[in-house]
């Protein structure tokens, strides 16, 4: 939220509540004619957040391609997955549906995750794709998505967020602080992202290309499209301010513009360290929550899990061989496999790892053969080898430093 709204200031004072420092990375792509918005790539620090497990969210049904890594950054691997699984199939279908030649030009900036040899790497799978890079250090000047598209998206997202707050305060007994503290989460965020990206207008997308492709603004290139002078005020910002006032927030247009500008800045090393520390804390909480979830399956033995997984494999094989619509069957089986059966595999894997670790830390020692009794009938104690002082083990005494024993 904008920095000067009172809810942001309260976040730092509310006992037992972590401030909203959570971040994610989005990758946007759209065509020059503005009638194709490709599903965005979203990178978060957690593969399956707690709220996803609670609501049994199927990530492949989201309006974004969900991926994760510890820093929530787009890496080369994740970018290539998005290109192969989302971008190329979407563009190919668009061209076929429009009856256009199978040819496409992908224009990108010089981000570290954008491989320079991308066209060569994709040549065998997608020979119809040409890749071109913008000159270095020109992203703010030429990159179409940076020409108000991303800024417009952020404003639309803020508007949707304020609208959601207004709806919750009006339709429930929740206060704004209670909603923000207990009911706004990453799943809510993804929903607002989908709405906001869908609401980026055709005009905004087309106008974004005018610095790279000036002719795009001419009516003869796109029928019915004539560039109009920029309005003195942004209607989206005006809507944000109006909604904010209706729920008691003191926000003006300058606050909204400051928020958009702030989110466009590169993170400093100090901010990155704070962010990573916060994310690690959140992951620790999620692991603790997972520990509670695991209690529900403690009564299920590992042999039972292995047995049901074996039967699941047999069922998959049977369906693949006998079902008439193999594609539909595989899709359904994959959904069940990814969202249900994978849980039991994870439980089994964790148990196996725990067993292996226990064996490593506490290996079973072979029982020595019992010595024969002596003349007195008593068994002599095994002789203890003397340990040189230089090799004696360190023992950490409670409240003190390591001492020799």
What would you note in describing this structure?
With 405 residues, this protein is mostly helical. It is 49% helix and 7% strand. It has 14 helices and seven strands. Strands 1-2-3 form a three-stranded mixed β-sheet, covered by helices on one side. The longest helix has 36 residues.
The rough form would be described as globular
> How many extended strands?
7
Structural class: mainly alpha
The largest beta-sheet arranges its strands as 1-2-3
Total domains: 2
The biggest sheet amounts to: 3 strands, mixed
Strand content: 5-15%
Helix content: 40-55%
Radius of gyration: 30 Å
Low-confidence segments: 370-405
Distance between the termini: 59 Å
Number of helices: 14
Order of helices and strands: HEEHEHEHEHHHHHHHHHHEE
Oligomer state equals: single chain
Summarize the structure.
The protein folds into two domains: 6-265, no CATH class; 300-357.
Describe the structure using short key phrases.
49% helix; two-stranded parallel sheet; globular; 2 domains; mainly alpha; three-stranded mixed sheet
Topology diagram in text:
Layout: H1 6-11, E1 25-27, E2 41-44, H2 50-54, E3 65-68, H3 76-98, E4 104-108, H4 118-122, E5 129-133, H5 139-142, H6 149-171, H7 176-183, H8 186-199, H9 202-207, H10 235-246, H11 253-263, H12 269-294, H13 302-322, H14 326-361, E6 394-396, E7 402-404
Parallel strand pairs: 2-3, 4-5
Antiparallel strand pairs: 1-2, 6-7
Helix pairs in contact: 6-8, 6-10, 6-11, 13-14
């Amino acid at each position: 939220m904008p920095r000067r709204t009172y809810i942001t200031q309260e976040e730092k004072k509310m006992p037992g509540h972590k401030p909203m420092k959570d971040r994610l990375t989005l990758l946007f792509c759209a065509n020059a004619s503005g009638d194709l918005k490709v599903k965005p790539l979203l990178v978060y620090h957690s593969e399956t957040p707690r709220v996803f497990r609670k609501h049994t969210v199927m990530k492949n049904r989201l309006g974004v391609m969900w991926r994760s890594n510890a820093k929530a950054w787009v890496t080369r691997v994740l970018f290539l997955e998005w290109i192969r699984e989302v971008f190329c199939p979407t563009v190919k279908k668009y061209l076929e549906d429009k009856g256009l030649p199978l040819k496409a030009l992908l224009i990108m900036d010089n981000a570290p995750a954008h491989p320079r040899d991308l066209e060569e790497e994709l040549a065998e799978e997608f020979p119809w794709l040409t890749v071109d890079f913008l000159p270095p250090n020109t992203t703010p000047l030429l990159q179409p998505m940076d020409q108000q598209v991303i800024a417009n998206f952020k404003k639309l997202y803020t508007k949707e967020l304020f609208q959601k707050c207004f709806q919750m305060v009006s339709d429930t007994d929740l206060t704004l602080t209670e909603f923000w503290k207990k009911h706004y989460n990453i799943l809510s965020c993804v929903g607002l992202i989908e709405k906001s990206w869908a609401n980026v207008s055709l005009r905004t997308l087309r106008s974004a290309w005018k610095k790279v492709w000036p002719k795009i603004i001419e009516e003869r290139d796109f029928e019915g499209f004539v560039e109009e002078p920029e309005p003195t005020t942004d209607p989206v910002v005006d809507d944000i301010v109006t909604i904010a006032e209706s729920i008691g927030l003191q926000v003006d247009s300058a606050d909204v513009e400051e928020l958009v500008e702030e989110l466009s800045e590169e993170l400093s090393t100090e901010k990155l360290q704070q962010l990573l520390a916060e994310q690690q804390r959140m992951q620790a909480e999620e692991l603790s929550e997972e520990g509670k979830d695991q209690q529900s399956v403690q009564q299920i033995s590992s042999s039972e899990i292995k047995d049901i997984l074996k039967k699941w494999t047999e069922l998959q094989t049977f369906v693949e061989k006998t079902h008439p619509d193999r594609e539909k069957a595989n899709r359904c089986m994959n959904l069940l496999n990814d969202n249900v059966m994978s849980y039991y595999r994870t439980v089994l894997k964790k148990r196996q790892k725990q067993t292996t670790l226990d064996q490593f830390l506490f290996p079973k020692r072979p029982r020595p053969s019992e010595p024969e009794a002596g003349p007195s009938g008593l068994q002599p104690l095994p002789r203890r080898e003397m340990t040189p002082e230089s090799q004696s083990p360190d023992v950490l005494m409670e409240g003190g430093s390591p001492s020799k024993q």
